Amino acid sequence: xxxxxxxxxxxxxxxxxxxxxxxxxxxxxxxxxxxxxxxxxxxxxxxxxxxxxxxxxxxxxxxxxxxxxxxxxxxxxxxxxxxxxxxxxxxxxxxxxxxxxxxxxxxxxxxxxxxxxxxxxxxxxxxxxxxxxxxxxxxxxxxxxxxxxxxxxxxxxxxxxxxxxxxxx
Length: 169
Hints:
By secondary structure, this protein is of the alpha+beta class.
């Protein structure tokens, strides 16, 4: 399974984040919640993508590759904490930033991105599908610039993407 993020954060968030928002580093027991966010987000934001793996295969990939190979943060809300988003950083590469579709535009993606920038304060890069206009606008609004484009040959979905870069001033 690919580690390209093709992130799905929205371009028009409100300026207030949920008061009960909590960010923390992920643990192995979060795999199911992260998988649910990943699957729901991709289905809602990128319905044009082919479904390459089952839910079980996706969870196994998150357990065996994403969680042990990256620094992963989860965003939780609610009295009984529920994972509503996550971000995964591998070195200076933001591999994933996904939100549950019903919590977009609430500042949660910006909060996750801030946590990632604390861990990589000088530079970040990421890949976004070219058709994912909402994610592209989100990253551009947060100071990322579009770099090289690809015809889709570097990702499993064979979907053209673009690399974004951010460098601290």
